[in-house]
C-alpha cells in the first residue's frame, strides 16, 4: 500500500542547508511517497524521458519522482520503520520512506537530479551516493563535505548524472549504527541509449545483516562479526521473493553488499558473466564465465545470463552459515554421539531439553520446535519435495516458458517433465569386493608403511 504524506509544507527549513541553488529554493519540497508493505511492486516504467527497462527490487519498490523543469526530483525521508523479515518475524529498523532498505532510485545518464532528504530519525544523518560521480560538496560525508542533517531538517542534493551503472545510497553519519539499523537503498542509472547493455529483466537487492536476539525486535548495533540474520533487502528465506524469469530472457542481477563480510553468491543453472561493478561497466573482453561471484564489503556486482533452461534454480550465498536464520552460536556438534543416556541425565535438570543432531542437523528443517515469539526457525522453508532446510540469503530463480513480458508473479514450483527428477532405485547394491589377507596389497594398490617418529624432546606437531 502506498500513501502520500505531506511532510513539510514550506521551504523555511532549507535555510540551514548547504549548496542549494536558487531554483531549489524557489521550489516547494515534493511529497514523499511511502510504503509500509514488503511486497514487490511491479517495475516502474518511466513516464517521460528516454525509455529503459526498469529494475525489479526484490520485496521492494522504485521511488516515483516528479519533473520540475528539466530537474528530476525525489524526496527521501530517513525514519524508523517496521520491517517484516519473513512471515513470523518483524524488526524495528531505520530506513527510508517506510521501509528498509529504502526505495530504489532510477535515473538515466545525463539526468539533472535533485534529491530532498528529510530527517525524521532521533539523531543526525546524511546520504552518500556510493559510486556516483558528484561534485565534492554533494558527496554526503557528514562533517567533511557538509554539515549533518539534524532531526527535523530537510537538505537538498543536486547533481547531473555522468555515468550509467549500479550504485547505492547510505548514510555517512554515525555509519555503524545507521547501517546496522538498515539504512541503505539501491541507485540504478540507465544508459541514455536503451539498446546499450539491454536486458529483458533486471533484478536488484542489497545485502545487510542484523543481530536480533530470538524473541526481540531491535538489532544490536555494536555487533561487528556475530550477526544472526543474513538478509537480501532486509528479508530472509523463505521471505525473499523468487526471481521470476521467462525462458530465453536475458537477465541481469545487481547485488550490493553493506554487511561486514564478503558474500560469494552462487547461482545454479545457467552460467553468468559479471558485467558491471560500482566503478562502471566491464568491457566485454574482460568478462569471464562464472557460477559464483564474490561480492566484497562495500561493493556492487551485476551479472548477466540467458535463461535457457527452465526450472527452479537455487541462488544463494555459498557461506553455509549465511543460509541459516538466527541460531545460538553455542549449539554443540553432536554428530556421531549417541545421546539417549545423556538426554536422560540432562532432562533431570531441564525437563524440556530436546537433543539434536546425532546424525546431522537435517531433522531441524522438518521439526517444529517450540520457539519464542518473533523468531524464525534456523532451517526452514518447504519445496514440492520436502523441507528446503535453508534460511537467510537464499532464493530461487524460476525460469518458465510462456510468461508475459512484465510478469513477476510467483509461478509456483516447476513441473518437471516425466523421468527428469533424481529418484530412488529399489534393489540391493552389490557387495564391495572383500580384501583378502590384511598384509597383501590388492592389484594396483600401493603398500604404505607408517613409520612412527622416534620419541625425542621435540614437540613434533
Ligand atoms: Cu554470505
Question: Can you lay out the helices and strands and say which pair or pack?
Answer:
Elements: E1 2-5, H1 22-26, E2 32-35, E3 56-57, E4 66-68, E5 71-86, E6 89-96, E7 105-108, E8 112-119, E9 128-130, E10 154-160, E11 165-170, H2 175-180, E12 185-190, E13 201-210, E14 229-232, E15 243-246, E16 250-257, E17 263-267, E18 272-277, E19 280-281, E20 289-290, E21 292-295, E22 299-306, E23 311-317, H3 340-349, H4 363-366, E24 380-383, E25 386-390, E26 394-400
Bound molecules: copper (II) ion.
Short characterization:
The protein has 461 residues and is mainly beta. 5% of the residues lie in helices and 32% in strands.
Description:
- The chain is mainly beta.
- The protein is 5% helix and 32% strand.
- It has helices at 22-26, 175-180, 340-349, 363-366, and strands at 2-5, 32-35, 56-57, 66-68, 71-86, 89-96, 105-108, 112-119, 128-130, 154-160, 165-170, 185-190, 201-210, 229-232, 243-246, 250-257, 263-267, 272-277, 280-281, 289-290, 292-295, 299-306, 311-317, 380-383, 386-390, 394-400.
- The strands form six sheets. Strands 3, 13, 14, 16, 18, 19, 20 and 22 form an eight-stranded mixed β-sheet that branches. Strands 4, 5, 6, 8 and 10 form a five-stranded mixed β-sheet that branches.
- The structure holds copper (II) ion.
- Residues 230, 263, 317, 319, 322, 393 line the site of copper (II) ion.
Amino acid at each position: 500500500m502506498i500513501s502520500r504524506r505531506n511532510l513539510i509544507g514550506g521551504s523555511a527549513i532549507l535555510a540551514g542547508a548547504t549548496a542549494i541553488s536558487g531554483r531549489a529554493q524557489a521550489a516547494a519540497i515534493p511529497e514523499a511517497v511511502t510504503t509500509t508493505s514488503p511486497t514487490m511492486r511491479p517495475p516502474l516504467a518511466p513516464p517521460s524521458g528516454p525509455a529503459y527497462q526498469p529494475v525489479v527490487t526484490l520485496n521492494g519498490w522504485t521511488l516515483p519522482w516528479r519533473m520540475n523543469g528539466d530537474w528530476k526530483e525525489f524526496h527521501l525521508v530517513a525514519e524508523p520503520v517496521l520491517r517484516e523479515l519473513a512471515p513470523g518475524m518483524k524488526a524495528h529498523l531505520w530506513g527510508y520512506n517506510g521501509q528498509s532498505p529504502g526505495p530504489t532510485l532510477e535515473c538515466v545518464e545525463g539526468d539533472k537530479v535533485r534529491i530532498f532528504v528529510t530527517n525524521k530519525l532521533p539523531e543526525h544523518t546524511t546520504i552518500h551516493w556510493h559510486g556516483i560521480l558528484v561534485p565534492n560538496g554533494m558527496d554526503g560525508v557528514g562533517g567533511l563535505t557538509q554539515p549533518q542533517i539534524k532531526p527535523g531538517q530537510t537538505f537538498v542534493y543536486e547533481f547531473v548524472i555522468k555515468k550509467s551503472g549500479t550504485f547505492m545510497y547510505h548514510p555517512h553519519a554515525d555509519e555503524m549504527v545507521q547501517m546496522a539499523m538498515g539504512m541503505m537503498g539501491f541507485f540504478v542509472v540507465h544508459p541514455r541509449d536503451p539498446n546499450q547493455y539491454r536486458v529483458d529483466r533486471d533484478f536488484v537487492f542489497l545485502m545487510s545483516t542484523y543481530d536480533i536476539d530470538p524473541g526481540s525486535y531491535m538489532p544490536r548495533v555494536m555487533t561487528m562479526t556475530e550477526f544472526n540474520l543474513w538478509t537480501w533487502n532486509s528479508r530472509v528465506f523463505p521471505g525473499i521473493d523468487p526471481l521470476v524469469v521467462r525462458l530465453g530472457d536475458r537477465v541481469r542481477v545487481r547485488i550490493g553488499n553493506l554487511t561486514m563480510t564478503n558474500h560469494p553468491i552462487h547461482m545454479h543453472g545457467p552460467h553468468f558473466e559479471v558485467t558491471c561493478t560500482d566503478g562502471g561497466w566491464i568491457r566485454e573482453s574482460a568478462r569471464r564465465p562464472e557460477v559464483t561471484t564474490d561480492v566484497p564489503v562495500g561493493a556492487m556486482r551485476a551479472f548477466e545470463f540467458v535463461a535457457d533452461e527452465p526450472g527452479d534454480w537455487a541462488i544463494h550465498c555459498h557461506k553455509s552459515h549465511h543460509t541459516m536464520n538466527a541460531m545460538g552460536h553455542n549449539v554443540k556438534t553432536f554428530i556421531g554421539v549417541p545421546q539417549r543416556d545423556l538426554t536422560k541425565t540432562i532432562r533431570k535438570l531441564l525437563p524440556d531439553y530436546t537433543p539434536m543432531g546425532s546424525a546431522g542437523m537435517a531433522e531441524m528443517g522438518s521439526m517444529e520446535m517450540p520457539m519464542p515469539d518473533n523468531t524464525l526457525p534456523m532451517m526452514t522453508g518447504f519445496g514440492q519435495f520436502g523441507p528446503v532446510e535453508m534460511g537467510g540469503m537464499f532464493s530461487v530463480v524460476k525460469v518458465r516458458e510462456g510468461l508475459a513480458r512484465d510478469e513477476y508473479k510467483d509461478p509456483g514450483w516447476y513441473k518437471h517433465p516425466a523421468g527428469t527428477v533424481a529418484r530412488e532405485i529399489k534393489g540391493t547394491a552389490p557387495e564391495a569386493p572383500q580384501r583378502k589377507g590384511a598384509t597383501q596389497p590388492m592389484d594396483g594398490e600401493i603398500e604404505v608403511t607408517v613409520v612412527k617418529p622416534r620419541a625425542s624432546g621435540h614437540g613434533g606437531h
